[in-house]
C-alpha cells in the first residue's frame, strides 16, 4: 500500500483589481436576453481561446439553448487537469435575475483580466470555472419586473426547478423531471465540481444544507454531516459581501445572524438542488439569495450593485475549493479506481472518485483527520494524522491492492500506512506552490 503526501501552501492574501465589465460591454447592465449570453460567450471564446470554452448543454422545450462557459488555463483539455472545479448557476427561477448579471460579469472579468491582473491569472490557472447564467431561459422570457410575483418563476412546463431534483430521503422522490433539470444534472455529473452556488433572489442570505429532513418541521435545524464546513462556506460568502452579514441591511422582517441560514431552519424544501448536489454529486453547494426584490425595474442599478456587492464574496468562496484533501486512487498498475470512496473519520458523508483519471477532492476545515480509501474487491487503506490548515491543500494519493492479488493479506495489517512507510516503500514528499487566494477566518 502506497500513500503519497504533498502539502501545497496557499497564502492568505489577495488583491483582485475591481473592474466593472460593463465598462467594456455596456449591455451587461441591461436585462439582456438569451441570445446575448450565447453571443457573449462566443465572443469571449474567440478572443481568449486558451482559457474560454463555451457550449450549450441542450435546449429547452421552447427552443432556447442553455449556455455554459468553462474558464481555466489550457481550457481545451480541462477534463484532464487535476484542478478543482466550481459550478455557479443563475436564474433557476426565471423571475430572479441578479444571478444572470453576476455570472455574465464574472465570465467577462476572468477572461478580460487574465492577462492584466497576475492574481486573476493565478486563480484561473489553478481553478476550473463552470458558469451557467440562466438555467431557465424560458422562465426568464415570461418574467416581468416585480419584487414578489411568480410570473416566470417556473419552467415552460410549469416546474419549479428547485423542487425538481432527486430526493436522497425516502419520501418525495421524483421519477420524472423537467428538461432543464435533466440537462443540469447530466452536466453537473460530467464536470465533477468541488463547490457550487445557485444564485436566487427574494432575500439577502446564504442558505446551506439540509434544505429538508424527514421528521423535522420548518423552523427546526436540519444538520448535515458537514454542518461545520457548510457554516464556514456560508460565512465566507456573507462576511465578504458588502451587506449580507449585517442584519440591519437584510430584507424586511429577516434577521439572519451572520447573514446565513440552515435551509430547513428557514423553510423546509425537498427535492432542492443543493441537497442533491451534496449527496449525489459530492459537490458542496450553497444557495445565495442576492437581493430582496426579485426582478427590479432598473437594470443599470441592479447589475452595477450586484457586481460590486458580491465581487469579494465570489473570489473568497472560490478560494475555498483549494482547501481540500485531494489526490488519486489507483491500482498497483496505475488504473484509476472509479467509484472508490474517500471517508473521513467522524463525518458520515464520504466523497467518491468520479473523475476518469482517478482524482478526488474533499473540502475540509482546519484540523487533523483520519482518511480511508475503500473500493469493493480491494483492501481498504487508512491514512492517519492528515493535517489540513487554512491556506493549504494536502494531496494524499492512494494505491489499493486487490484482494485477488494478495488473498492472505488482511485489512488490519495494512490499515495504517504511516506505521509501515519504510517497508512499503511509500514516498512522502512535501512541495510548495504559492497561489494568491483568499481564505476567510472562519476556516481557522
Structural class: alpha/beta
The pLDDT mean sits at: 89
Shape: globular
**Uncertain runs with pLDDT below 50, 5 residues or more?**
1-13, 410-444
Q: Could you describe the largest sheet, including whether it forms a barrel?
A: 8 strands, mixed
C-alpha termini separation: 32 Å
Short description:
The chain is α/β, with parallel strands linked by helices. It has helices at residues 34-47, 98-113, 118-126, 137-142, 179-191, 227-240, 263-266, 273-281, 299-319, 421-424, and strands spanning 2-9, 52-59, 65-71, 85-90, 128-132, 195-200, 203-208, 260-262, 284-291, 324-330, 341-344, 347-352, 359-363, 367-374, 381-388, 392-399. It has an 8-stranded mixed β-sheet, with helices on both faces. Strands 1-16-10-13 form a 4-stranded mixed β-sheet, with no helix packed on it.
Question: What do you see in this structure?
Answer:
- This protein has 444 residues and is α/β, with parallel strands linked by helices.
- It is built from ten helices and 16 strands.
- It has helices at residues 34-47, 98-113, 118-126, 137-142, 179-191, 227-240, 263-266, 273-281, 299-319, 421-424; strands at 2-9, 52-59, 65-71, 85-90, 128-132, 195-200, 203-208, 260-262, 284-291, 324-330, 341-344, 347-352, 359-363, 367-374, 381-388, 392-399.
- The protein has an eight-stranded mixed beta sheet with strand order 2-3-5-4-6-9-7-8, with helices on both faces. A four-stranded mixed beta sheet has the order 1-16-10-13, with no helix packed on it.
- It starts with a strand and ends in a 20-residue tail after the last helix.
- The relative contact order is 0.17.
- The model is unreliable at 1-13 and 410-444 (pLDDT under 50).
